[in-house]
Amino acid sequence: MRRTIDWADGAIVIIDQTALPAEFRLLELRTVDELVDAVKRLAVRGAPALGAAGALGVALAARMGGDVRADAEVIAHARPTAVNLAWGVERALAKLDEGADAVLAEALAVLTEDEELNKTASRHAADVVLAECPRRPLRLLSHCNAGQLATVGWGSALGVVWHLHERGLVEEVLVDETRPLLQGARLTAWELAQANVPYRVQPDSAAAAAMARGMVDCVLVGADRIAANGDVANKIGTYGLAIAARHHGVPFVVVAPSSTVDTKLADGAGIAIEERDARELTEYAGVPVTPPGAHAFNPAFDVTPYDLVTAVVTEQGRWTPGENR
Ligand code: MRU
């Protein structure tokens, strides 16, 4: 598959994730405003892909001239939770004094590295899963989308599935639909179908019941930010999954490139959690599903305490808190 996000002819080109699975459509983003809008609408999403978006956004701003640092600030704050966005912005911005070409070269390096790092991290994580879970073939549970679409290429948590599937070791993936924006049902299921991996979609609320029935050997998730003590911010519902996994003795494995570790934050309490528009809950496909005027609590992410996590795995292997890398 082509890269989720790339650079071509002076524009950022993304796979429009709002259109999948109905339509595979590319979007060309030619201004910083268009990029910021795409990030806010989740046309490009997932922590590692947002890192690439941040870096390419600065490259776009640098080519256009203007106040690049002010543009960079706007890009870095388009979404608050995934540390990768600001990280990508900072990496590209560090080259600004060397000119627009140097900024672009750095952004393209972020893209190339992303694919390599996720491939390596997910290979290490596949080894962890095989060590933690005796049953073969494996029944895995996925939440949100941590696949190719959430990265430049390959994927993090879903990347583990690709490695294991190549070895014939996957019986099925239970895919949490991931309310309210359905990244699991729309995107993860689409990726699994493309790769011919057996899967079933389930309501998020079925995950604990699936574990209780002994249908899950391992929970695999990505991360948007990992604090220095190992607390993990990821898609809303991840924390509940971790509690259920612990209750049922199911390993809970987090896979992310090390750029997702925010060593500046002591623990998860300091992670900014994005709250999204109430209409994501009060409407379904534009049709109201609540009484008029209903208020909503719509956090996009939650924080899983590290003591519920079996392993955090990066491209450097199993990561433990205190490792400053
Ligand atoms: O709101 P989203 O779709 O950007 O949320 C994405 C997630 O929560 C992913 O699990 C996370 O970014 C890791 S992706 C490799």
UniProtKB/TrEMBL annotation:
Its annotated pathway? Amino-acid biosynthesis; L-methionine biosynthesis via salvage pathway; L-methionine from S-methyl-5-thio-alpha-D-ribose 1-phosphate: step 1/6
Q: What is its EC number?
A: 5.3.1.23
| Signal keyword on record | no
Offer one Pfam family short name for this entry: IF-2B
Reactions listed under catalytic activity: 5-(methylsulfanyl)-alpha-D-ribose 1-phosphate = 5-(methylsulfanyl)-D-ribulose 1-phosphate
User: Which residues make up the annotated site Transition state stabilizer?
Assistant: 144
The residues the record assigns to binding substrate are 45-47, 79, 183, 234-235
Which UniProt keyword terms apply here?
Amino-acid biosynthesis, Isomerase, Methionine biosynthesis
Q: Which residues form the active site?
A: 224
> SUPFAM superfamilies from the entry?
NagB/RpiA/CoA transferase-like
Per the record, the domain of life is: Bacteria
List GO molecular-function terms, semicolon-separated: S-methyl-5-thioribose-1-phosphate isomerase activity
Q: What class of enzyme is it?
A: isomerase
Family statement drawn from the similarity comment of this UniProt entry: Belongs to the EIF-2B alpha/beta/delta subunits family. MtnA subfamily.
- Matches recorded under PANTHER family: METHYLTHIORIBOSE-1-PHOSPHATE ISOMERASE
Q: What does this protein do?
A: Catalyzes the interconversion of methylthioribose-1-phosphate (MTR-1-P) into methylthioribulose-1-phosphate (MTRu-1-P).
Supply the NCBIfam families for this chain: eIF-2B_rel, PRK05720.1, salvage_mtnA
What protein name does the entry list?
Methylthioribose-1-phosphate isomerase
The beginning of the lineage is:
Bacteria, Bacillati, Actinomycetota, Actinomycetes, Pseudonocardiales
